[in-house]
Amino acid sequence: MLSYPVRIALIGCGGNGSQMLTGLARLNHAITALGHPGLLVKVYDPDTVSEANMGRQMFGAFDVGASKAHVLVQRINAFFGLNWEAVHGRFDDDQHQRQFLMAVACVDSARARHEIHHKLKRYGVHYLMDLGNRAADGQVLLGELFPGRVALRAPKDSVLLPSPYDVLPELVDLKAKEDDTPSCGLAEALERQELFVNQSIVTPALSILWEFFRKGRLTWHGAFVNLRTGSMRPLNVREPVPAPPAAAAADNKQELEGASA
User: Fold this and answer.
1) Are the CB atoms for 30 and 71 separated by under 8 Å?
2) What DSSP line would sit under 126-144, residue for residue?
3) Which residue from 109, 118, 221, 217 is spatially nearest to 171, judged by alpha carbons?
4) What are phi and psi of 177, to 5 degrees?
5) What's the Cα-to-Cα distance from 119 to each of 17, 64, 208, rounded to whole Å?
6) Measured CA distances, 260 to 39, 44, 135, 212, 246 (Å)
7) Contact, 225 vs 219, CB < 8 A?
């Protein structure tokens, strides 16, 4: 049983990230009611709200021009009585990355993912959940950045989760051509992405975290969603593999004390 809240970095609060933040607040409210110490979330995004964001993202006309991170976190804190933090800036500009056990990446380019991945590994963040989408399909993947490290309190038959970017290396492929042209309005944005594609990605992501924090285990750690075919294909956890020697796990006791929720 954890004795302190789990620190999570939410990187990006646009289409996926804004809905993910709301879901994390609901998740936190539920698990604390059940005796869990809860979550402490810090949100990073360098962008401001534009008119094109309204409808697809969790913003209104009165938010236009304001910091996405500050608008959303202030709203969540007021509604749920939390003290979560917001940073109007990039994750890699922060000097406090070591405090997090988990990061949730909701960014839309391979370059951003590549830079975030480098920083997370450098500062020892153990778990990474990546959410991404195209016009009508997308994926969520939860994995470990240090698969050789196992929490001391994890069950002996625990399975090591592959990094999201080992499962889909193309997510961090800097050679891939990307369209990062911003939309000028909601109509143009909806031509490029379906209205509810972000919600369809965030729902399985939150279901994975619910099982992780509520039950302390995982039966699946990712999903591929397609709105055009109405399908969702889960990525199931592999069969258990032998755990590393206890001595190797002991080296990481302080860092991973909270890995078993």
Assistant:
1) no
2) -EEEEEEE-SSEEEEEEEE
3) 109
4) -80, 135
5) 19, 30, 24
6) 14, 25, 35, 8, 16
7) no
**What is the DSSP secondary-structure string of 3-61?**
SSPEEEEEE--SHHHHHHHHHHHHHHHHHHHTT---EEEEEE---B--GGGBTTBS--G
What is the C-alpha separation between 59 and 55, in angstroms, rounded?
7
Three-class DSSP category at 232 = strand
CA distance 219 to 234: 10
Q: 6-256, what's its fold?
A: Rossmann fold (3.40.50)
CA dist., res. 40 & res. 6, Å (int)? 6
Enter the tokens of residue 105. Answer: 């990446």
pLDDT in tens for each of the 261 residues of the chain?
567 899 999 999 999 999 999 999 999 999 999 999 999 999 999 999 988 888 777 788 899 999 999 999 999 999 999 999 999 999 876 666 668 999 999 998 999 999 999 999 888 899 999 999 988 999 999 999 986 555 444 566 677 899 999 999 999 998 866 655 444 444 444 455 677 889 999 999 999 999 999 988 899 999 999 999 999 999 999 855 443 343 333 333 333 333 333
Percent helix, strand and coil across the chain, each to the nearest 5? 40, 20, 40
Identify the residue whose tokens are 């143009």: 188
Query: Encoding tokens for residue 67?
Result: 């910091």
Residues, the chain? 261
3-state secondary structure of 208: helix
Q: What is the rounded distance in angstroms from the CA atom of residue 47 to the CA atom of residue 131?
A: 18
